[in-house]
Design brief:
CATH superfamily of the largest domain: P-loop containing nucleotide triphosphate hydrolases
GO molecular function, one term: ATP hydrolysis activity
Bound molecules: adenosine-5'-triphosphate, magnesium ion
Main location: membrane
CATH architecture of the largest domain: 3-Layer(aba) Sandwich
Largest sheet: 8 strands, mixed
Subcellular location: Cell membrane
Number of domains: 3
Order of helices and strands: EEEHEEHEHHHHHEHEHEEHHHEEH
Strand content: 15-25%
Distance between the termini: 39 Å
Keywords: ATP-binding, Cell membrane, Membrane, Nucleotide-binding, Transport
CATH topology of the largest domain: Rossmann fold
CATH class of the largest domain: Alpha Beta
Membrane topology: Peripheral membrane protein
Shape: globular
Length: about 325
């Protein structure tokens, strides 16, 4: 069952330097209970896409078009009151930095209780406290009866992120959006938080949209991955296919820049040569062509024509290379 259907989403920010085309025609569906990842380098439009789902892109001149259908209702066409009712109840968000996501002046128990009360007015004080305690227990905070009355600064970074997750889940949202939920944390804590998100997802049956620039994180908990580059989806595939047979040169580049997961060896990371393009003045044709080692083999096509997303095997790829070549060349992304 499709829970969320994003159709031709475009977001442009008017700035003093010109229009920033942050998202340029992104479409995807998320089914109930599914876990989808959005990956891509910094500035590729991941957060702007995620924020759009709850109409949280702020700025003096934000232009958004397309449709964001949440169980058939277009979020972009809702009134402010309707969007407020959706935020935190149907769709909840976990942000990157657990410090800024929590209010330093309120106890964590109060913050969890308030997140619940907004959507369940009239709940008794006693019930709210039980709900806060129960939430802390579920996300693995030890000694919840003591911790519930403490303030955010009394918790470690990993524990704070657990509290942020508790707040996000208190209303059992249908969709949980996690925007780089682990980047601010050290590696062991990262793994625990990912496990927690996966466990919570199982328990609540929520769909998860996980945003990260780390393909290793994707492999841990997601089923499907969308790779973004310069505001577009350039590859959409199951996680298994994306790793075994990437169908876009950019995905191959990202894979090569991931530490060898299977061997655990400390290899030098190979980064993708070149820098991401300016979103104010994008290169002509395929936005990735100036950095792509295959572009020259196709003459001028890559620099003149924008490739559309099309089927390659069981994945979708926005690349001009013929299918056989894509699978041949890129399937070998793992020879290291
Ligand atoms: N409010 C805004 N006003 C102007 N430009 C913006 C605004 N928000 C985002 N942008 C620009 O839109 C582009 C996409 O930003 P976005 O935050 O979606 O990237 P991202 O893929 O999430 O990157 P990161 O991995 O660094 O979080 C960037 O160039 C960013 O500077
Ligand atoms: Mg971001």
């Amino acid at each position: 069952m499709t829970l969320l259907s994003v159709q031709d989403l475009r977001v442009t920010f008017g700035t003093a330097d010109g229009d920033v085309h942050a998202v340029k025609g992104v479409s995807f569906d998320v089914a109930a209970g599914e876990t989808v990842a959005i990956v891509g380098e910094s500035g590729s439009g991941k957060s702007v896409t995620a924020n759009s789902l709850l109409r949280l892109n702020f700025g003096a001149d934000v232009r958004t078009s397309g449709r964001i259908l949440l169980e058939g209702r277009d979020v972009l066409a809702m009134s402010e009151d309707e969007v407020r009712a959706v935020r935190g109840r149907d769709v909840a968000m976990i942000f990157q930095d657990p410090l800024t996501a929590l209010n330093p002046f309120y106890t964590v128990g109060r913050q969890i209780a308030e997140a619940y009360e907004v959507h369940h007015p009239g709940t008794s004080k006693k019930d709210l406290r039980e709900i806060a305690l129960d939430s802390l227990r579920k996300v693995g905070i030890p000694e919840p009866t003591k911790r519930v009355d403490q303030y955010p600064h009394e918790f470690s970074g990993g524990m704070r992120q657990r509290i942020v997750i508790a707040i996000a889940l208190v209303n059992s949202p249908k969709i949980l959006i996690a925007d780089e939920p682990t980047t601010a944390l050290d590696v062991t804590v990262q793994a625990q938080i990912l496990e927690l998100i996966a466990a919570m997802q199982q328990e609540h049956g929520s769909a998860v949209v996980l945003i990260t620039h780390d393909l290793g994180v994707v492999a841990e908990i997601t089923e499907r991955v969308m790779v973004m580059y310069a505001g577009r989806v350039v590859e959409s595939a199951s996680v298994v296919d994306a790793f075994a047979t990437p169908t876009h040169p950019y995905t191959r580049g990202l894979l090569k820049s991931v530490k060898s997961l299977d061997t655990g060896r400390h290899e030098r990371l190979e980064s993708i040569p070149g820098i991401p393009p300016s979103l104010i003045k994008l290169p002509s044709g395929c936005p990735f062509h100036p950095r792509c080692s295959f572009a020259s083999s196709l003459g001028s096509r890559c620099s003149t024509e924008v490739p559309e997303l099309r089927a390659v095997g069981s994945s979708s790829s926005a690349c001009h290379l013929p299918n056989e070549r894509l699978l041949d060349l890129l399937g070998g992304a793992h020879d290291r």
